Structures are given as structure tokens and as C-alpha cells.
Amino acid sequence: MKYRFSSLLLLPLLAVLLLAACSDGDRAASTASSTTTLSEEERAQVDAFYASKPDFFTYATPEALPADLVWQDGQDEKPFADPNAKRGGTVRSFILDWPPTLRFVGPDSNHSMRSVFLDDNKMSLCELHPVTRHWIPGLAREWAVGADKRTVYFRLDPDAHYSDGVPIRADDYFYTFYFMQSPHINDPWYNNFYGERFSNITRYDDYTISITLSEAKPDPLFYTTLAPTPAHFYRVLDEHFVEKFQWRFEPTTGPWELLPGNLKEGEHITVTRVKDWWANDKKFYARRHNPDRRRFTVIRDFQIAFESFRKGDLDMFNLTMPEYWYDRSQNIDEVKKGWIHRAAYYNNVVQPTIGLYINRANPVLDDKRLRQGIHYACNWQRVIDFHFRGDYARLKGEADGFGEFDHPTLRARPFDPDKARALFAEAGYSKAGPDGILVNAQGRRLSFAVSMSNSPNVKILEIIKEEAKKAGLELNLDVQEPTTNYKKIMSKQHEIAFSGWGVGLPYPRFWDNYHSVNAYGVDGKLLEQTNNITSTADPELDAVIDRYRISGDIAEMIEMAHWMEEYLYDEASFVPGYKMPFYRLGYWAWVQFPEGFDVPLSEGPNQYGLYWVDEDKRAQVLEAKKQGRALEEKTKTYGEKPE
Amino acid sequence: MRLNPLTVKKLRRFRSIRRGYWSLILLGLFFVMSLCGELFVNNRALMVGYEGRWYFPVLRSGIYTGEDFGLPYKSEARYRELDALFAERGGGDFVIMPLVPYGPLEQDYVAGSYPPYPPSLERGHYLGTDNLARDVFARLFYGFRVAMLFSLAYVVISFAIGIVTGCAMGYFGGLTDLAGQRFMEIWSNIPFLYLVIIMRSLIPAGAGTTERIVTLLLIMCAFSWVGMAYLMRTATYREKAREYVDASRVLGAGTFRILFRHILPNTVSLVVTFVPFTAAAGITALTALDFLGFGLPPPTPSWGELLEQGTQRMDAPWIVTSTFAVMVIVLTLVAFVGEAVREAYDPRKFSTYK
User: Fold this and answer.
1) Beta bridge pairs of residue A500
2) Is residue A258 in some structural domain?
3) Judged by CB atoms within 8 Å, which residues 8-47 of B form the interface with A?
4) Which helix (DSSP H) or strand (DSSP E) does residue B13 occupy?
5) Are A326 and B114 a contacting pair at CB < 8 A?
6) Cβ of A488 under 8 Å from any chain B Cβ?
7) What is the pLDDT along chain B (354 residues), one digit of tens a residue?
8) Is there a domain that residue A283 lies in?
9) DSSP E strands: which ranges in B262-313?
10) Distance between CA atoms of B14 and B22, rounded to whole angstroms?
11) Which of B144, B141, B113, B118 is nearest to B130 (CA)?
12) 3-state DSSP assignment of residue A144
């Protein structure tokens, strides 16, 4: 037995060794390409692709633009960066794993550096203002939404260019679709996304384009604000794409680039600020992304990285976990003496729907009163108060963090054993058995299994279980290895599942989780592999969801969303759990932040890059540390804590 | 019942090995204590005097609710609160709590501070609490009971299977033996941990805690009988060739009689010497599985779960040290007993074990 396990461990090691043997040491990043334009032959090949889909790729003249368009430029919004921010300096962070590739698409492209290279870097046509959530310009200087709510028109900023100096033109957007729809990139997700979601792209002139969605959306900008792909870098794609671009860094539109020689395989990567970044002085981009360099060292263990941070080898460290915020960083010398500062920032991002999903396909649980009783029997407040030390907050319901789409008054039911018992009694469970658990007239105990994966979260449910006894409810924990648990829930074999769905802007979606087409097939059997894990199938709700999905009117959608939230509250098949409405950070005193610390849509300091490094202060703090001299201790909470 | 003089001799020999003998007595005492553990470690009162009537909550199979004692809740009475309340109120009402007034599942949070709480004589948490504010002593105590019962059942079941198959293979020999050996070779090559994970997933979601524990027990037994079967096969082969077996066959004894009346008693020393070591192995295996999160269903009190918590929280040393100490003590006692048993059954009287 022992022997077998060790050989299992050896396998990945062997793989790593083989990989290392294959590397030739100088697979350095390269942004160099021979020319900045495609040759005629290459041009012809790409054009042939466009010509093969005349409905999708259209050429028009500026006169063809609809006359009634209302162009917007977002210039009424206020800039959100700090005017005192200083350019320069180096920020040192860590990554847990070496990225397996520098590509953004294709196999293994979802890696540890993706947010640095892509998500928080590459620019799109328009961006959301992180405070007001209104649109502000990005690569497009102006935009206009068509009357059909499917087409959006963009005028590109003539100043915009890639880090290698090549300007961004309408052609780069044509090329984006050529690139993303290509089978050579080996990425079905992108193929599907760029193939199904859009129906047309039109070029009016070098700087004017329109993008059309397959379906109307109330705010089509959300789906059409795309990033360009540099044609002069990728050129004509072939079956060698994946290997060819494995270690080449794409010229970027954002502030950070990876220059050749700035990475040492398995050890560190340094991104540098683009010299003369085109958006340097633009209203919404000035005074952001301030350091000159950001260096990422590979540290494969979180605890070791923390020690490294304490030593001063890393400038910032994420302290969101209670254990790190309290036990590990509260009383250390570096914090007490004010060399390391700590901040908790309450943001306002959409919250994943973590909680208990009650499966209505179970005949016993298909009773509204009983489900409402379960709501009152769950003591989430105790979990929040003790397990999360009062830092987390109760999730409001199906929608939390969507602004006006959140229900204005509805809140999750609090723990109340008496109300729970009253509802259980209505459902027939009125007598207590010898162990205090309620039973009904047929002798069935009020006992259900909660399926969940084997993780530290089991502790949360142990608290819920103990407290539920007070309401006469027994919850048995059905703890499985994560994949097994996922399979069980996806095949709807659970009674109650402790789970959470990641959600995204712009508005809550109800179809995936609550529409009957995701609950039962045409044969009336339970559908597997859908997100409707409560097996909700109500014609009344279906009708509203259907109208909501095709609606193009925000006000009407908000009204429908509120109605659905009330309806689902009453149906009570989802017990809202908790949310984490903040991020917490430790940083050496030379890192400076704006007065408000960050902006509400931010999930970390690097997303909007509002901080800066004060190199003079660095010298002072290091000197103080050397002498053991105390500076002012600083642990501060920013932003608004939700109720 | 008249004991075989040989057995009497062995028992006397065992008794003369003081270390093993006292270990057995101590272990037995602990076990018996843990079997009626509710009298010593419990959040239910031993006795409540309320309005002139006496209640014995511990001895009752059901529960008394708060309402039974004039409190405004329908769940089980919280006796420690009741105790404080009666003391404050004065009068004839009283509550007698067990020595350690906490149950293994009860979460005793203190407002304004966060578990794990350090040991405190004043609050009655003699070994502190774990991450969920549960009393470490209570969890160790009930964890011991679970581990002992589990490992005893483990020994009985896996030995039963092992002895029957082993005897059959040794006695019948030939094709039975050959097939049995091949089967055992294949069987012992199935990865045990994966099977535990897979079997767990097959338990229906609605199964209760007891069903889950029994399933785990059966899976563990299914993979632990092979060693015993091999031993018994060899022993039976050897005994079968002796003249007393031939003699009894000539006298007309059947297979069963020969196997169970003649061969088995002569190989029993082999079985008995293995009992304590297998029991210890059962405890460690269960602890290891719990440590990995594939053992007893939460929140069953278990040593492995405590060890796991303790290694995560080195800043709360009372969890890991007390668990580790208890494990070492119990396993050492078992090992002492095992050593003494082996010596008692050893025909060479003057061999020494160092």
C-alpha cells in the first residue's frame, strides 16, 4: 500500500522533470515580430476568411451609420484616481505556481499570472466606472447603442496603440473574430463565445465599427465591449499556434508588459510599465498603475510567503482569511511598530450565492412551510459571529451586490426556533421524539442530509447542525470528496446541498437556477448537469423569467427581478448563507493608498491600480526597522460595512 | 466451567507479567468507564430537583425540554444555565452536574472571544476547547469509546472472515487453496483509500450516522482479513498433518468437528497473540482516516479530527498535545497487553523480550 502511494507521488515529479528537460532555457518572452503589417499573401488569407462569412463581416462607409445615434463619451464622470499619486518604484509580490504558458487562450491559459497579464491589464472598448457603474471610455472614445438593443457603435481613440507602437484600428477587431473563431487556438470556450454570442461586425472606416449581438440585451455594451487582438503579432494562424505562442507575450494595450529577459523560469517574472503608455494622461487612466515594475517571485507555500512578507521581501500581502488577519498578523512586531500597515476595504462587488439549496424533487421537501421552517432553523448569524469573527455578513438573498436589482427591503430570514417549530407543526411535524427531533403522524423524523464537499467549510455546517436541534430539526452531514459531491449534486441526488454559485454583472440571472427547463426534461425526468439544483419548476415563475430574459428595458427588468426575489423568498428553496463584503491587505508603510483606499467595484489593490510606492519612505521605514524604532501603528477599515 | 489446565497455566503466566496485567486492568477500567461515560462527562444533569420532584435526565432515554423546568423553550433543557438559575433563585431546587459538565457535540461559545479557548478550571474546560468551542476532554473521552468499540468490532469481524477462509484453504488444500490464494493476492492489491472514497459516495444521502459508521467498519474489515487468513492457512496446514487429526478422522469425526474442535483450539495461540496488535492497528487506521476527512461522519467525536485541528492550529497547543498524549497512552497500554499475551502463550518459558 505504502509503495503504491509513493509511486503515485512520483508520477507528477517525473512529469516535471521531463518538462524541465525539454526547456531550452531561452524560451524568453518576446514581443518582437518582423513587421508591423501583414504581407499581401497573409492579408489575402485573412480576407478570404472574412469573405467566407459575408453576413458576419461587413464593410460599409461612414454614411451608412444610422443618423439617429446618440453618441456618448462618459466625460461627465469624475476620475477616481488620487491626484497625489506618484509614478515609479517597484512592487514585489508572489505567485504560488509558475505559469505554464504566456498565451491568453488555448490549453493551460487559465493560470496564476492571468489577472496580471490580462484581466487587470488589457483594455476593452469601454469600461465600467468603479464608483458610479456608468460607462467610461477605454479604447473607444465614443459609443452609441443602436435602437435594436443588439448593435453598439464605437469610435476608436486615434491615440490608442499597442505597447510596440502599432496603432489600434478597426481591422484589429475584425481579426479578433478571425482569431477567436479559429480551431487552431484550441479553445472551445472562446470559439463558442465569439461564434454564438455575436452575429455581425461592421467596419465603417479605420476608426469606426459596430458589433451586433445575436440577441437583444438591455445593456448590450456589457457584451460588446471587446478587447482587440493584434493581427501583426499573431498573423495567419496554423496548427502550430499552441506551441509557437507558448512563451511569447502579446503586445498589450494596457499599462503592463513583459519584456524579453524579464522572466526566469520557475523563479520570477517582472512586468514593467509600458513606456509612453497611450492612456497615460487620459482622464480615467492618469495616476493609475503607478509603479515602474512589478516583480512576482514564485513561493509555493502561502505560509512561507507570509514569512517572506514579514521580512520585507514582499510589499503587500492578502490578509482576507480571518486566521491571517487576526492570529497571524495582529500582534506581530512589524505591525505593532507601524512598519507594516493593515487595511480592510469593504467593497461592493456581486456576491456568490453561498447557502443551502433544498431539493424540491424530494417529496418530503416539496412543502413550502417545511422549507421556510428550515430557513428559520439555520443560525447563520452564529457562524458569522464566531466562525467568521463578525467580519462577514449575511447574504441578502438570490441577488446581492447588483445595485438596483437587489430587493430594497427583503432580507434573509433570521434564526428563530419558535417560528421554525410553528412552520414545522403546520407541515405536520408537531411532536418531539425522544431525542428532541420532531416527528410527524407517520413517525417520520424531521431529518435531512446536507451534501457538501470535504473542506474546512464542514465546520460551518457543524455549527448549523448543532443549532438546528433547537428547532427540532436534524441535519446529517453527507461529506464527500469534492468531485464526488459535485457529481451527486449535479445528478440531483441530494436532499439539501451546501454550495455556492459564482455570479457576474450586470444583473442577476434566474433562468439557470430556477427555470423548469433546467429542472425536468420533456419526459418528466429530473435533468442532470444543470444549475437548477433546487429542482424548481413553477409555470408562473417560468413566465416571468422568460419575459425577463428577452426584456430590453432596465426599469421593467428591475421590477421583474424584485417580483422574482419575493416569489423565491416565499418558495424558500434557497437558504442564503454568508458573504464576504471586503478584502483585507497588509502592506509595508512605503506603499501609499488614496484616502478612500480603493473603489467599490474592486476585488484587490491591483484591479484598478490606485496605489503608489514612495521610495523615500521605503528608505525611512527600512532605517527605522534596522534601529528597531517604532512608527505609528495603522490598522484601518475603509468603505461602508453592509448592514 | 472447568478450564483446560493448559489455559489455566497461560492465564497464570499472563498474570505474572505485571506490566501487561495492569495495563489490561487499566484499559478495561477506562473502557467500562467510557461505556457509562454519560455519568462522568455530559451536559445533561445527573439529577435535578425541581418543585419537590426529582428528575434523572441522564438515565432517561428521552429528553426534558426547557418547558419541563419552567423555562420558555421547547428544545432540550440547558442544565448548566438551569444550575446557575436555581443557585441564584435559592429555594429547594437544585441541579447535580457530572464531573465534566460538557457534551462532546456542544458548542460553548463565549461572546466577544473566539475559540479555541485555552484550558480553564473555572469554566470546567479542563483541556480547553477546539475550533468550534467544543470541550476537548469530552471529545477525547467519547472519541475513545468510539475508537474502542470500533476497533473491537473490527477485530472480531476481520478475524472471523480471516479464520474461516484461512482454515478452509489450509484444510481442504488443492484447488480451494490455489483459488483462495490468487483471490487474496488480487484483493489485497485494490487501493484501500480509493475504495473508501468510492463506497462513501454510494451511501444514500439520507443515511444516519450509525449506518455511515457501520459502512466504514465493513469496508475496513473487508480489507484487513487477508493477513489473518494467510496465517491460519499455514497453521491449519501444519496441524492437519499431525496424527491426532488422523486419529479423530479414523474415529469418524466430520470435517466441522475436526476443524473447530481439534485444529482451531490448537492454533488459538496464534489468533490470541494478534488480537491486541490488530486492535491497535484498528484505532490508528480509524484515526488516520479521520485525519484525512474520510473517517467517521462529522460531528462524531474522533481523535483523528482533533489531531487534524491541532496540527492546523499550532497556536492552540492544548488540542494537539492532549490528543497526542491520550493516543500514546492508550496505544502503549494496548501494546503492553499484547506483549504479555504473546509471552503467556509462548511455550518456551524462558525466552525474554527486550
Assistant:
1) A354
2) no
3) none
4) helix B5-16
5) yes
6) yes
7) 677 787 888 888 889 889 999 999 999 999 999 999 999 999 899 999 998 889 999 888 888 988 889 888 888 899 998 999 998 888 888 999 999 999 999 998 888 888 889 998 888 899 999 988 999 999 999 999 999 999 999 999 999 999 999 999 999 989 999 999 999 999 989 888 888 888 877 887 777 788 888 988 999 999 889 999 999 999 999 998 899 999 999 999 888 888 888 888 888 888 888 888 899 999 998 998 888 888 888 889 999 999 988 887 777 899 999 999 999 999 999 999 998 988 888 777 655 555
8) no
9) none
10) 10
11) B118
12) strand
CA separation for the pair A18, A414 (Å, rounded): 56
Q: Which residue has the cell 417560468?
A: A542
CB-CB neighbors (< 8 A) of B138 in chain A? none
Alpha-helical regions (H) of A198-290? 221-224, 231-234, 241-244
Distance from CA of B52 to the nearest CA of A (A): 24
| Mutation choice for A interface testing from B61, B75, B117 by most A CBs within 10 A | B75
Residue A90, strand partner residues? A293
Q: Please tell me whether residues A336 and A372 are part of one structural domain.
A: no
| Contact status of A419 with chain B (Cβ, < 8 Å) | no
DSSP 3-state of A329: coil
Asked if residue A505 and residue A384 are part of one domain, the reply reads yes
d(CA A562, CA B233): 73
Count up the domains in chain B and report the number: 1
Comparing alpha-carbon positions, the chain B residue that sits nearest to A448 is B206
Chain A within 8 Å of B61 (Cβ-Cβ)? yes
**For A458, which of B61, B114, B298 is closest by C-beta distance?**
B298
B76 close to A (CB below 8 A): yes
Contacting residues for A388 by C-beta, under 8 A, at least 6 apart: A322, A578
**Under the phi-then-psi rule, with left for phi > 0, alpha for psi from -120 to 50, and beta for the rest, what region is A312?**
left
CA of B7 vs chain A CAs: smallest distance (Å) = 38
Nearest CA in chain B to A422: B74
Strands A574-576 vs A353-358: parallel, antiparallel or unpaired: antiparallel
Name the residue range of residue B272's domain: 5-35+138-344
Give the number of other CB atoms < 10 A from CB of residue A550. Answer: 10
Task: Write the DSSP string, B137-169.
Answer: HHHHHHHHHHHHHHHHHHHHHHHHHHHHHHHHH
In a domain, B298, yes or no: yes
Does B73 reside within a domain?
no
DSSP lists the bridge partners of residue A126 as A137
Query: Is A53 within a domain?
Result: yes
Task: Output the CA angle B65-B68-B70, nearest 5 degrees.
Answer: 115
Closest CA to B82 of B109, B111, B51, B107: B51
Q: What is the distance between the alpha carbons of residues A72 and A134, in angstroms, rounded to a whole number?
A: 11
In terms of domains, do A415 and A558 share one? yes
Residue type, B342: R
**Element (DSSP H or E) covering residue B70:** none
Taking an 8 Å cut-off on Cβ atoms, the answer to whether B74 and A4 are in contact is no
**Residue A271's CB: how many other CB atoms inside 10 A?**
25
Q: In this structure, which amino acid lies at residue A224? A: T
Cβ-defined contact of B205 to A458 (cutoff 8 Å): no
Closest CA to A176 of A203, A136, A142, A214: A203
**Cα–Cα distances in Å, from B291 out to A463, B174, B201, B294, B303?**
20, 43, 18, 8, 8
Residues of A in contact with B133 (CB under 8 A): 386
- CATH code, domain with A163: 3.90.76.10
Closest chain B CA to residue A480: B201
- Residue A323 sits in which domain range? 301-348+581-639
Report the CATH number that the domain containing residue B188 is assigned in CATH.
1.10.3720.10
User: Among candidates A417, A433, A407, A391, which has minimal Cα distance to A582?
Assistant: A391
The Cα–Cα gap between B76 and A437 comes to: 10
Q: Which residues of B touch A418 (CB under 8 A)?
A: 74
